[in-house]
Specification:
alpha+beta, about 15% strand, elongated
Length: about 240
Amino acid sequence: MLEAGMYQGVSAKSAEHTENDPKCVELGWRCIPLAVESYGAWGPEVSKAFSQVATRLAIWDTVLNPLGHHASTCKRGGDAVFRHNRLRDVVAESCRLAHLSVKVEAGNNLTPDHSHTRPADVLVQNWSRGRPAAFDICVTSPLNTLTLSEAGVCAGAAAQAGEVRKHSANDDKCGDLGWFCVPLVTEIYGAWGAEVKACFSQLALRLSIRLQKPKSVILHELYGCLNTSLVRCVATAILSRIQSS
C-alpha cells in the first residue's frame, strides 16, 4: 500500500467496515474496528474510541468512586456475590444455632414451570405454623436513582422498595412450594428492612431460649455480626478497586 509509506496507520483504517457494517446496521449496532498495524500503529477510530473510554474512566475515578458508592454496588468482579454469600452464611448459621433445620440455596427444579428458580437463599423448616420460610437476602443502595428521592426523606426507603421487588418476584414461586417468602433486605450502609426486623425478632427469641441469654443481647449480637460482615465486604470491594487502579 503506497499510502502507508507516507501516512502512519493507513493500513489500520476501516478494512473491517466493508465486512461488518451491513451486519451491524441490521442489528442496530455501530461498527468500530479496533485495528492495529504489525508495527504498532493504531487506526484513527481506535484513538476516538479509547479517548471516550479514558474520559469515562476519569469520570468514574473523580466523580463516582471517591465515596465508594460505585465499588460497593458494582456487580462485576465477584464482590457483590461474596457479600451476599457472607450474609447468607451468617443467617444460616444463626438459624442452625437455634436448632432450626436449614437448607442453603433451595428451590431448584421443584416445580415444572419454575424449573430454574431459587427463591430461598436460606430455607428454614417449620418457621411458622408448620410451614417453611424462604429467606431471600438482598443488598440494595439508597443512592439508586429509582429510590433516591424517597431515601432522602425516609430512612430505609430503599430496603422497603427491595422487599416489594422480592415479593413480586418470589411470592408465586414460594406459594407453589408451600413456603413463606421472607425478604431480608439491607441497604449498603446497614439499614435493614421492616420484614428483617420482624424475622430477626422471632429468631432472637428462639436463640434466647436456646442460649439462655436475653433477647435484646441476642439481637445486638446478630445485627452486629451481620453489619460487621457487610462493612468488611464493602471495604474489600473499595480497596480492591483502589489497588487495581
